[in-house]
Amino acid sequence: MTAPTDMTLAGARAALGRREISAVELTRAHLGAIEALNPRINAYITTTPELALAQAEAADAALAKGEGRALTGIPLAIKDLFCTAGTRTTAGSRILGSFVPPYESTVSGNLLRDGAVFLGKANLDEFAMGSSNTTSAFGAVENPWKRQGEEETFLVPGGSSGGSAAAVAARLALGATATDTGGSIRQPAAFCGIAGIKPTYGRCSRFGIVAFASSLDQAGPVARTVEDCAILLGSMAGFDPKDSTSADIPVPDFAAACARGVKGLRIGIPREYRLDGLPAEIAALWDQGMAWLKAEGAELVEISLPHTKHALPTYYIVAPAEASSNLARYDGVRFGLRENGEDLKDLYERTRAAGFGEEVRRRILIGTYVLSAGYYDAYYLKAQQVRALIKRDFDQAWDKVDAILTPATPSAAFGRDEKQDDPVAMYLNDVFTVTANLAGIPGLAVPAGQDAKGLPLGLQILGKPFDEETVFAVGSAIERAAGFTALPALRAAA
Amino acid sequence: MSLDTATVRRVASLARIRVEEDELPRLEAELNGILGWIEQLQAVDTSSVEPMAGGGNQALRMREDRVTDGDIQEKVLANAPDRAGAFFAVPKVVE
Amino acid sequence: MSYTIEGATGPWELVIGLEVHAQVTSKAKLFSGAATEFGAEPNSQVSFVDAGFPGMLPVINRECVAQAVRTGLGLNAQVNLWSRFDRKNYFYADLPQGYQISQYQFPVIGTGEIGIELADGTTKLIGITRLHLEQDAGKSLHDQHPTKSYIDLNRSGVALMEIVSEPDMRSPEEAGAYLTKLRQILRYLGTCDGNMEQGSLRADVNVSVRRAGEGFRTRCEVKNVNSIRFVMQAVEAEARRQIEVWESGGTVDQETRLFDTTRGVTRSMRSKEDAHDYRYFPDPDLPPLVLEQAWVDELAAALPELPDARRARYVGDFGLTPYDAHVLTLEKETAAFYEAVAQGRDPKMAANWVTGDFFAGLNRTGHSIGDSPVSAENLGALLDLIKDGTLSGKLAKEVLEAMFETGKPPAAIVEERGLKQVTDTGAIEGVIDEVMAKNADKVAEFRSGKEKLFGFFVGQTMKAMQGKGNPALVNDLLKKKLAG
Fold it and tell me: pLDDT tens for residues B42-85?
């Protein structure tokens, strides 16, 4: 039998169903792996072994009674942006202090409803702001992958869901929840050689998820296969009356869509994504992806998304603006960190200076500035208009194609000390992913190859709003064709 | 558009984030770097484009007028850094 | 002759506009399911949404929207089928989210108007600029501790309607009349209880002064005035202050001020010195508020009768004087009481009794219409006893007094005290005979032409009957007997 930590989620579910392994055994295997590897990788901020074992025991009892649900006994990591009742939730920030939510996010609650086991809270960039998981107040996360011949170089796992992606890649969880505001699921998934999907805006409830940028934030899963992502999303998604932006649309059988194939599908290849200076190996991987899909019977259609090049600056106005307002509630009055001051304003200023890290402070200031009197029209309103144009580009593309294929990232994982000096250079990581957030459409990253140093590279499939099924179908076809079997250097039982 | 030191100070005050005087020059340079990069949007023709506000495009859903929440005083106060009985406490505010 | 204040250098006109914050009558808050009742334990009517906890999201209460639409319809205002919520960003201890959800650019209700009645009997139209929905903040208590302020979030998230008038008012009286009328309309509609002591209704008063014929000068906003009388006082105090500033060669700065009710002056608000920059932007947690015209039509069809319409009906259908109609429609409860009394009876007689002896009785006994010892049913029964001749008007007044004291129905009082009017002609004739026998000299004088003495005989007869003789019968029978 496969080692428990090497199982896919679907495989583990089948093994649990056949009683080949118990949920407690599966959970213990993962807790052991966490104990061994987490001190180095730092994928978890908080682990909850006792809670996990109790949940696993309950899962075994349910399975014994034939009352297993979609995820009964499946050990998962929960990004520490999801509020979990009774378990400290930090958002990767000092400012939340020892905040213990008395409530459960809808998405994590859905997973519990379906029988999942929570191993702990996964590390992330502070308030999900970052593309390298280096801004966490609880330390950076190490990418389990190593460049060949550079075993000592600390590579970043991507961000902001770096802890989630690293945990899954290193076999410290079968899957994980993540969130994606500009690429925070897809970029770390690509950097860590796993799959991850940001569903359509409104597919997963945002209730109980610490907000970064409300009009862009969306929860989604990361896992080692596309099918595993489909299974997780099936549980995470669904209408929630507690979120006014949640879509009242039925959740289809995403896992079933993985087997559909791509025959007859029209796949768009956006001209504008072939950036100047795009590394040859990224371009080659993209071409390879096209060839695979064509061989499977899809039709390739060149399309134009002319406003693509404006997406990043648009994002870096909209996201900080919303964040500056969303993060105003961290003021040291009702929860979290407080630094005393001589008066209320001083208390606020000291608390927020001490509680927020550098990148978060920077984005709050940018966001405050672009919304301030006299600048709103030039920045925020302008960005909203360009955002409308970006969405229109996609709306027009859907007349011609069923899905779009692009690279997931402009590079493989980079070193911790690279790109840290210039915020703008860091922001460019999101160049292929950010459009999906602005347009509200689903995007899936799937591992499809390796660079010259053996690091994983991903392709991205974008789809129509609420058509995750086609995205899963295309992603699965790529996955099958790519046959990606490479393993990270750091992993359980390795 | 670029920020001067006074503007950085004013924005930091609006955002209620304490910035030490010696941090200002570096912050000013960083913010100007970001704003300079964002500036490229001004070149996009957006005349007669309706701004897109939210992530979805549905209309607001309304709930019924029923009391379904509250009465959780202890939970609301449990995480407070300073509380006085059933109140949150802050340094005295003068109006 | 328009209202002016005489300064040292000549007369000044006043320009006044009101922003009224009216708490929406609803069971739950605007964006959360916590209760809205007044006077609960601190922080007991607070959800995690109201306390601005991480990951909490707003969901709008349909009834609050309906109440805003009803109010808009009652103000003859435009109902905007598309509106939107924005965030108004500022830090304050009782503002947990760090922003207030409000409607800045696209309010749910657009322009409308209110007709106000002035003491000289004239009416004037005051324009309504807009009405929008927003969240209330929590409450800071500054007097509980020497160095701390205490925060109670029970009010946080309660729905408010901000109703903004045009700067159409020109005197303290007009400002008072506007607020009176607005409050009356809100109470008729049931969209706000209008309780100013509890803060359900409070006004920000914008005041500026100018010379006749000038454009507008700088205005100041006097915040949170919580009675109609104080609004009128604040207008005058602030106008006088500004006149002094202008006349001494200074300039009025646009600022927010508070009205000191004990000293009767306005003062600058220290905590709001910070330059305001609210950084409004559309709330990304809330899609646009889109209303169906059919729903608005339904709400319009179910709207209660408003004071103006009711007053017109009292004059037109009931034949009341405009003054009585005005008095009876001031409060919804009074009108309802009056209509219950008038139901199936002479409406003018009902109006006379309600506005006359009944109101006097309330005043004398310190009651309001809500806790009146005399029910509309019992007052109506009293009118019936007059109508069927059981009671004279004079006796009825006595009975009403007893009703105020005991709360009993009039028939019971008449029974207990034997106040029933005597209508038996034989009995009355017997008394008349006795009176005439005792006063034979006067009878002779009367018969010889001194007809003024008729009143004397009526008085003597009624006295002998302890006031219970039916006056009409006594008159008729006396005339016959005296005529011989």
Answer: 999 999 999 987 766 688 999 999 999 999 999 999 999 999 99
- Residue A329 touches chain C, beta carbons under 8 Å: yes
Determine which helix (DSSP H) or strand (DSSP E) holds A55, and give its type and residue range: helix A49-64
| pLDDT computed for residue C468 by the predictor | 80
From the CA atom positions of chain B, what is the Rg in Å? 22
Is 0.80 surpassed by the pTM of this model?
yes
**Chain C residues with CB inside 8 Å of A382's CB?**
none
Q: Does C57 touch chain A (CB under 8 A)?
A: yes
> Which residues of A belong to the active site?
79, 160, 184
CATH number at residue A58: 3.90.1300.10
Q: What's the pLDDT at C275?
A: 61
**Is residue B47 in some structural domain?**
no
Among chain B residues, the shortest Cα distance to A100 is held by B79
What is the C-alpha R_g of chain C? 31
**What is the per-residue pLDDT across C280-304, written as a single tens digit (0 to 9) for each?**
999 999 999 999 999 999 999 999 9
Q: C348-352 — which CB contacts under 8 Å span 24+ positions?
A: C348/C318, C348/C319, C348/C320, C349/C383, C349/C386, C350/C380, C350/C383, C351/C314, C351/C318, C351/C320, C351/C324, C352/C324
Chain mean position to CA C325: 14
Is pLDDT at C81 greater than 60 in this prediction? Answer: yes
B17 CB near a chain C CB, below 8 Å? no
Question: What pLDDT does residue C273 have?
Answer: 46
Q: Are A376 and C93 inside 8 Å of each other by CB? A: no
Choice between C68 and C425, residue whose per-residue pLDDT is larger: C68
Domains of chain C (ranges, CATH numbers): 5-296 (no CATH), 305-417 (no CATH), 425-483 (1.10.10.410)
pLDDT class of A422 with cuts at 50, 70, 90? confident
3-state secondary structure of C247: helix
For C46-63, what is the mean pLDDT?
98
pLDDT over threshold 90, residue A150: yes
DSSP codes joined into one string, B33-87? HHHHHHGGGGGS--TTPPP--SSS-PPPPEE-S---S---HHHHHTT-SSEETTE
Residue B95 has pLDDT above 70, yes or no: no
Chain A interface includes B49 (CB < 8 A)? yes
> Is there a contact between A388 and B56 if contact means CB atoms under 8 Å apart?
no
Closest CA to A472 of A250, A229, A265: A229
Residue C136's pLDDT band (boundaries 50, 70, 90)? Answer: very high
Mutation test of the interface with chain A: which of B3, B14, B34, choosing the one with the most A Cβ atoms within 10 A? B34
| Inside any domain, residue A457 | no
Tell me whether B81 touches chain C (CB under 8 Å). Answer: no
Smallest Cα distance from B66 to chain A, Å? 14
Q: Is C63 on the interface with B (CB under 8 A)?
A: yes
Chain C positions in Cβ-Cβ contact with residue B66 (cut-off 8 Å) = 27-28, 33
In a domain, A157, yes or no: yes
The verdict on ipTM greater than 0.90 is yes
C195-243 pLDDT tens trace: 999 999 999 999 999 999 999 999 999 999 999 999 999 999 999 999 9
Q: How far apart (Å, rounded) are the C-alpha atoms in residues C421 and C394?
A: 11
Interface list for C 259-278 with B (CB within 8 A): 269-271, 274, 277
pLDDT the model gives residue A428: 82
Residues of C in contact with A325 (CB under 8 A): 87, 89, 98-99, 279, 281
Q: How many domains does chain A have?
A: 1
Using the Cβ of B47 and the Cβ atoms of chain C, whether some distance falls under 8 Å is answered with no
Cα torsion B24, B26, B28, B31 to 10°: value is: -130
Residue of C43, C274, C283 to mutate when probing chain B, most B C-beta within 10 A: C43
Structural domain boundaries, residue A41: 4-258+477-482
